[in-house]
Design a protein that fits this description.
The complex is a heterotrimer of chains A (about 375), B (about 500) and C (about 325). With about 500 residues, chain B is an alpha/beta fold. Chain B contains 17 helices and 24 strands. The longest helix of chain B is centred in the middle third of the chain and has 16 residues. The chains are: A mainly alpha (about 375), B alpha/beta (about 500), C mainly alpha (about 325).
């Protein structure tokens, strides 16, 4: 007994305008901003001035918007890395380590390879960044697939390992010659990401990737495999899907995307590798992925919002005396409110096999 | 002297279904009252109301003359009401003694007094004639023993009213008889017993009175003296019950499924299947009769590539199938209706259309290479929903929202719509409403008539006897007999199932 | 007799023999290394207790890291502002309790995915502490070292076990206390039942929800103590990276210790020794590896520990699954 046409129509339009599911992130952001406003007030700053300054500098001018998009780019990619993992039932907190691997690798490719035209050099450097990010992700994936080590612990450990390793590289073998600071040599012009109409090209690249990810999950057999594993490992195995392979793919591709994020940040913004460039980008990715409800397209508005906040934090400090760390707090609050019961019911998919994220350690 | 339990006009409405419709009944001291009804008749809602877990929309429940308070489950238990659950509520890794004293532990100061606990268990065990070892670990014990622990747990508090929920589902015929003896003994001691069951035989054997529920209503109150099994069945289902499926003769052909010397171990590394040889010819239904826990589950899993085969082979049309690879076994020609449908049969958050192609999603026409073909998937879904009478608001509905029977129909539809050589159906009608049961039975017969070799595994002996052409009895991992279903002696099979070989 | 010839006992004897050998070679250095090991290992052990208290009752607690971080922060800044270590300690404990209750709210009442809930605690902790951090504070005075009279003079064991700060003593005593409570009291039996098969506890009259709230709250309290230990007793100040993954290492130790307080304590001490020995080797310039690789050591070790324990351990059966009252 199939439904009447009216049901179909209602069902289809609900999917596009799913007001219920848009409402939660919006409400969460508003509530978080209110609480932050209270804290600002208690610290003696004027919340209204702070927010207006923030918004004006982030979205008010082309150069400001460009900066926003620049900040948003690695967020989109980091959020995408987490999203890909979530879809396959994995909680990839390792975006930070994967990102840093990509950053330093791409920086090295950027300054160490001479004599190539930009058309070749830039994509090559980006790919090398993605590759090293994927390696970092692969390690965590293999640990899970073959030793059953839960990815939350392994990725956090790997993050710290990568940070130490990269610190060593940037102060030793890859250090800029003759300079005291811990960083690499500047990247050659031929590997820098150009701007289009004042807006960073990297941003459009990241949007394109998000769209590709969305399409893969919706329309392809590979996407179907990952999704099925994420929702019900047992049924997936029964249907002939290799769970191990899916775990490896999700972590490797996620790592590649995060690595690309680090590469874009290095080649598009900083122009070289500096260790302190991106504290917390990995965790931001988690917030953005959960804000976007693990939908590859849903992470874009969140990334722009957070990117804007980070871009405008400097002028907010200047105009209203509010510490830029408030953005970290804001994000934490947003994440908390967004995770209210409605969202979690979606994430806790079905009773069998949990949501895949929380499971026995020995499995 | 007031009755132990009085249920007066209880009604409870859930969205879409009236679970209890003005139900009244009484249980007196020393009486065994059977609460008889099909799945979905309203029994569990009623029991939940008695325990204060569900607030009725109207009516009253009194225990020993005093009304109960909704939500005060502990108080109700304190008044002498005990329950033995269908699905045991025991902690597998703890000992028998620990399980029994949980919640009311004997103490010495701040610390647990396990010595006293063990003594208590021994005393209880002797008093009721239910022998258990207090130090044994529950998960190592056989099912019948685990049930004894459940019962002892309930009896430990001074119970005047004991409710048993489908207690014999997992017992051998012999263990069932032992249990019924215990029930009668309890009644003689003055305990009131409510026996919730759908097994007519037991009702006739032990009940003083029978209350029959159907669609939430009491449709009859009778006793074994005044009625018989057919009468009870008719009350339970509401029409002339066809206890046998309409089917023509089988026309068996060549062996389609051959199992040779199969040895399989269970999760605890013990031999669950101990050298099984079995053959199913195309165009016949072979039913495996046996009490749960005798190796059927492991047998099915090994055949279907879901459990490691330690020794032996599984052949389809003479060709060996792969070990531990369910999909390749499927491609080799074995279709499977799994016992644990939520775990293996479908993804509950996927819609009906996707679940209908779950194990063919990467094959033509549902996918061309890498890209899935949404139109074909939809077309297939619409056709199958029609053909198999799957009740769903839309093919885009999440499968988890369907009723048990319709979920099963999705799986049946998926498997029967593909090329059929061998069909393994494990507990295909468990938890399924009566209408769907008939439908599924007819589908199985239709599959047989189309030439498939059907292996049916079921805990319901009646289902086996009515559907099968041949019956194989499994006991402790071995096939102890294979016989024709026509004219089979039920009692004889029962003895075989219990491990008593002539 | 043969039951004592287990692999575990051999390893234990081997470790004792190693200690005896090194003590023989250079008593003072060995003593100081092992004493430092206890100080390094204790926060890990206590954090593992936090994990055990939660997981035995069925709740996965990924937020130990964040709990320790906010508590350490509270201990330090409240001590500094109030001029009293004790007030700072109390503040830390209260903050830890709050964090625990928050996790319980998300995991038990809201039935959120517990990994996400724990991560939220961590992110909230990082956000809060980074926003509220102010340079230039110091502790009013150092945490006193309490030497137990008489016992402190025992060679080797004296300095190692009986010359520590108050929180260390509390911690060690608590761990033993938890072991007794978990396996020999009614509370312990019920908690474990809730973690293995909540339905059985429920039908036995135990309130699953109340017990989970209680245990997770208490665990948070202990997390607060651990945080206080880090900033007040071990380091003497607060920096942004103070916890440095200890909360996650604690989970690995919990798994490796088979969810048993004494097992986790042993694993934590092993970790502490590894770190103390490495430090000593660096000081003595016996080995010369770049500092960054030394820093990596705890993280690599954690992964190795987990890789080794994989598949061989059996967690509480019901952990991670939110409890819905379904009746038979």
């Amino acid at each position: 007994m199939v439904a009447l046409d009216t049901e179909e129509i209602v069902h289809k339009s609900r999917r596009v305008f799913d007001v219920g599911s848009w409402l939660i992130p919006v409400v969460a952001v508003i509530v978080a901003m209110l609480i932050a406003a209270v804290l600002m007030y208690l610290q003696g700053a004027a919340p209204l001035t702070a927010y207006t300054s923030l918004l004006k500098s982030a979205f008010g001018s082309v150069s400001g918007f460009g900066k926003t998009l620049g900040k948003a780019t690695p967020l989109v990619l980091s959020g995408l890395a987490v999203t890909i993992g979530l879809r396959a039932g994995l909680f990839n907190i390792g975006a930070q380590g994967q990102l840093i691997s990509g950053a330093i690798a791409s920086a090295w490719a950027g300054y160490a390879i001479h004599g190539l035209p930009m058309v070749i050099h830039l994509p090559l450097a980006l790919l090398i960044g993605a590759f090293f990010g994927s390696l970092t992700g692969l390690i965590a994936g293999a640990l899970k697939a073959y030793r059953g080590i839960h990815e939350v612990i392994s990725t956090i450990m790997l993050n710290s390992i990568v940070i130490s390793l990269v610190d060593y590289l940037a102060s030793g073998p890859l250090k800029e010659h003759g300079q005291p600071l811990t960083r690499t040599a500047p990247v050659l012009k031929s590997a820098l990401v150009p701007k289009i109409f004042g807006l960073p090209l990297g941003f459009f690249l990241s949007i394109a990737l998000a769209y590709v990810a969305w399409w893969v999950f919706r329309r392809t057999t590979s996407g179907f495999r990952l999704e099925t594993v994420g929702r019900n490992k047992n049924a997936a195995w029964y249907a002939g899907i290799s769970v191990k392979r899916s775990i490896l793919i999700a972590m490797t591709v996620g790592g590649a995307v995060a690595g690309l994020g680090g590469a874009v940040e290095t080649l598009g913004i900083t122009g070289r590798f500096e260790p302190a460039f991106n504290a917390g980008l990995g965790f931001d990715g988690i917030t953005i992925a959960l804000l976007g409800r693990a939908n590859p397209l849903g992470i874009i508005p969140g990334a722009i919002l957070i990117g804007g906040m980070r871009a405008g934090a400097g002028s907010m400090q200047f105009d209203a005396g509010v510490a830029p760390e408030i953005v970290d707090l804001l994000m934490a609050l947003i994440l908390f409110f967004v995770s209210a019961p409605l969202l979690t019911r979606w994430l806790r998919r079905g009773k069998t096999g949990n949501s895949g994220l929380t499971g026995g350690w020995g499995s | 002297m007031s009755p132990l339990l009085e249920v007066i006009g209880i009604s409870k409405q859930y969205p879409g279904v009236l679970a209890n419709d003005n139900i009244s009944l009484t249980v007196n001291k020393g009486e065994v009252v059977a609460l008889l009804g099909e799945n979905g008749a309203g029994k569990s809602t009623l029991v939940k109301a008695v325990f204060g877990l569900v607030r009725p929309d109207s009516g009253e429940i009194r225990i020993k003359g005093e009304p109960i308070i909704f939500g005060d489950t502990n108080g109700i238990i304190g008044r002498g009401v005990g329950m033995v659950h269908q699905h045991f509520q025991l902690v597998p890794v703890m000992t028998v003694a620990e399980n029994i004293v949980l919640g009311d532990e004997p103490r010495r100061g701040m610390l647990l007094n396990m010595k006293k606990a063990r003594a208590e268990v021994k005393a209880l065990s002797e008093r009721y004639g239910l022998d258990v070892d207090p130090e044994a670990i529950v998960e190592d014990l056989p099912v019948g023993m685990q049930q004894r622990i459940e019962i002892l747990k309930a009896l430990r508090k001074e119970v005047d009213l004991l409710i048993l929920d489908e207690p014999t589902a997992v017992l051998t015929p012999q263990e069932t008889d032992e249990l019924l003896t215990v029930v009668r003994a309890l009644a003689t001691q003055g305990v009131g017993v409510v026996l919730i069951t759908h097994k007519l035989r037991e009702v006739m054997a032990v009940a003083d009175r029978v209350v029959v529920l159907r669609d939430g209503k009491v449709v009859g109150t009778t006793s074994p003296k005044e009625s018989d099994e057919e009468g009870l069945a008719q009350l339970m289902v509401g029409r002339d019950v066809v206890l046998r499926v309409e089917k023509g003769d089988a026309h068996p052909g060549k062996p389609a499924l051959t199992i040779k010397g199969l040895v399989v171990r269970d999760d605890r590394k013990l031999k669950a299947v101990d050298g099984v040889d079995l053959e199913v010819l195309s165009g016949e239904i072979v039913g495996v009769a046996g009490v749960e826990g005798n190796g059927q589950r492991e047998l099915v899993e090994a055949i279907c590539g879901m459990r490691h085969r330690e020794a032996g082979a599984v052949l389809v049309n003479g060709i060996a199938t792969e070990d531990m690879h369910p999909h390749s076994v499927h491609l080799a020609g074995i279709s499977h209706i799994p016992e644990d449908r939520e775990k293996h049969g479908f993804v509950s958050t996927y819609n009906v259309a996707d679940n209908l192609v779950l194990n063919q999603f990467d094959q033509e026409p549902f996918a061309r290479g890498w890209i899935r073909n949404a139109d074909e998937i939809e077309k297939n879904a619409e056709s199958l929903v029609e053909q198999f009478d799957i009740r769903t608001p839309s093919i885009k509905t999440s499968t988890g929202a369907l009723s048990g029977g319709n979920k099963q129909k999705v799986i049946v539809a998926r498997e029967l719509s593909q090329d059929l050589h061998v069909l393994v159906a494990a507990q295909p009608t468990r938890g399924v409403d009566v209408g769907s049961i008939e439908f599924i039975h007819n589908q199985l017969v239709a599959a047989r008539d189309r030439g498939a070799a059907v292996l049916l595994v079921s805990a319901e002996l009646d289902e086996i006897l009515s559907l099968s052409d041949r019956v194989a009895v499994i006991s402790r991992g071995k096939i102890v007999a294979t016989l024709d279903a026509k004219g089979a002696d039920r009692a004889y099979i029962g003895r075989l199932m219990a491990g008593l070989h002539d | 007799m043969s039951q004592y010839l287990t692999k575990r006992n051999f390893v234990f004897l081997g470790i004792l023999a190693t200690f005896a050998y090194f003590y023989h070679k250079d008593g003072d250095v060995t003593t100081s290394v092992v004493s430092t090991a206890v100080s390094f290992g204790l926060p890990l052990a206590l954090a593992a207790m936090v994990g055990i208290m939660c997981e035995r009752t069925g709740i996965v607690n990924i937020g130990i890291e964040g709990t320790m971080l906010v508590s350490a922060f509270a201990a330090f800044f409240v001590s500094s502002l109030s001029g009293s270590l004790i007030i700072g300690f109390i503040a830390a404990v209260l903050v830890g309790l709050l964090a625990g209750l928050l996790l319980a709210l998300m995991a038990v009442s809201w039935r959120m995915d517990q990994i996400i809930a724990g991560t939220i605690i961590n992110i909230l902790a990082t956000g809060l502490t980074s926003f509220l951090f102010k340079q230039g504070h110091t502790l009013p005075d150092a945490m006193p070292e309490i030497d137990i009279p008489g016992l402190q003079s025992i060679p080797f064991f004296g300095p190692v076990l009986f010359m520590h700060g108050p929180i260390t003593y509390f911690g060690l005593i608590f761990i033993i206390f938890l072991w007794v409570a978990l396996f020999h009291t009614a509370w312990g039996l019920r908690s474990r039942a809730v973690g293995e098969h909540p339905g059985s506890a429920d039908t036995a009259g135990v309130s699953v929800i109340r017990l989970r709230y209680l245990n997770v709250g208490l665990a948070g309290l202990i997390g607060g103590v651990t945080g206080a230990f880090l900033s007040l007793e071990l380091v003497g100040s607060f920096e942004r990276g103070l916890t440095a993954g200890k909360g996650f290492t604690a989970l690995a130790l919990m798994i490796f210790g088979r969810w048993n307080p004494l097992g986790a304590l042993a694993a934590a001490m092993f970790f502490g020794v590894a770190q103390a020995v490495t430090n000593q080797l660096m000081i003595d310039q016996v080995v010369n590896i770049p500092q960054q690789f030394v820093n990596m050591l705890p993280y690599v070790l954690t992964i190795l520990v987990l890789a080794f324990a994989a598949g061989k351990v059996r967690p509480p059966a019901a952990e991670g699954q939110p409890y819905e009252k379904e009746q038979a």
